[in-house]
Every structure is written in C-alpha cells, then in structure tokens.
Specification:
Length: 54
C-alpha cells in the first residue's frame, strides 16, 4: 500500500468539516388554504400543454 492510498483511506474515515454548518430553519406550519409552489408549477405546465400552439 502506498502512502497516497493510505491518506485517501484516512480521509474517508474522518467526517468532512464544512466551513459553515447548514442549520435548517424551523418554519411554522403553513396556513390553511396555502398551496405548495410545486403544485402550482405542475398545474401551469398542464395548462400550457393543453393550450393549442399557434
């Protein structure tokens, strides 16, 4: 085993340190009646597909 391959193995064992840890912000639950953006996008795509192209 070469020194380079040994160093690679050591890197895999150590957890990767990130300069800025990502903290997931806790969001309050969505208000009743709100629609997710993904659903809106999907609906728009469907409507656009139905439109006859000129």
């Amino acid at each position: 085993m070469t020194a380079a391959s040994k160093a690679d193995e050591n890197d895999k064992l150590k957890p990767k340190k990130t300069s800025s840890p990502r903290i997931r912000t806790i969001k309050p639950p969505a208000k009743p009646g709100t629609i997710k953006r993904s659903i809106i996008r999907k609906a728009i795509k469907e409507i656009m597909a139905e439109q006859p192209t000129h």
